[in-house]
Every structure is written in C-alpha cells, then in structure tokens.
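Quick one:
INPUT:
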C-alpha cells in the first residue's frame, strides 16, 4: 500500500479519532475533484488535436489512450461517490460513535485509501501517456506559429 502524504505513518487508520479521519477524507475528496478536472483537461487536449493525432500509424495508440482516459474517468466518478458516502458516514460517527461497527468502518476506510492510491497510480500513468502522445503534435503547432 502506498501511504498518502497527508496520512501519518503507522497505524493511523486504527488509532485516529473520527474527526481526524474526517479531515483526511475531505482531503481525498478534494484531490479526487482535482483529478476529475485534470481528466477534463486531458479530454479537451486530445479532442483539440484529435485530427492531427489520427493516422494509420497511431490509430491503435489513440484508441488505447481514449479507452484509458474513459476508464480513469469512470473510476474517478466511482471513487468520488464512494468517498462522499464515506464522509457522510464519518459525520454520522462523529455525532453518534456507536452508529457503526468501528472495526468494520476502519477496515472500509483503509480499503478506500488503497483504492484511491491505486487510482492515483493509474491516473499518473494515463496522464503521462497523454502528454507523451500529445507532445509531437503540440510541437508541430508551435513551429507553425513561430516565424
């Protein structure tokens, strides 16, 4: 498991107060919203240069890129929804600490963290692939604009 920089090392998930988990989860939700906006930008970038990118040599590459962006966007939406629900449950736990089984809830929290960590790794990979594929096309555009 990759630890998020906002989460203290060790067994934080199992020893933290619900308010601390709430703050951490708010950060996750904020980060996921940022990733969603970043994905929107990547879609826009590919869409803008789509004609320049499509040719016989890289048609399969573009299909893979488009598929990867779509899959990443779907995963981001799913995690946004799951994290929002988790945040709601945390708020309920702060109000009534006996509302849910603490061990089960903390296990779910750890699982969500792992899912977000996995998502971030995949997101970074698709973002790098997108920029790698876009770089030659954008460089051609820049050369056309510079005298």
């Amino acid at each position: 498991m990759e630890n998020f920089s906002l989460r203290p090392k060790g067994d934080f998930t199992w020893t933290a107060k619900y308010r601390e988990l709430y703050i951490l989860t708010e950060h996750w939700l904020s980060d996921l919203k940022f990733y969603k906006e970043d994905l929107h930008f990547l879609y826009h970038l590919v869409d803008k240069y789509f004609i320049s990118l499509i040719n016989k040599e890289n048609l399969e590459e573009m299909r893979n890129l488009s598929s990867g962006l779509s899959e990443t966007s779907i995963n981001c939406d799913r995690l946004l929804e799951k994290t929002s629900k988790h945040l709601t449950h945390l708020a309920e736990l702060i109000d009534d600490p006996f509302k849910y089984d603490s061990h089960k809830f903390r296990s779910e929290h750890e699982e969500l963290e792992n899912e977000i960590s996995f998502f971030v790794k995949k997101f970074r990979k698709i973002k790098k692939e997108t920029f790698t594929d876009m770089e030659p096309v954008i460089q051609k555009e820049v050369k056309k604009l510079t005298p």
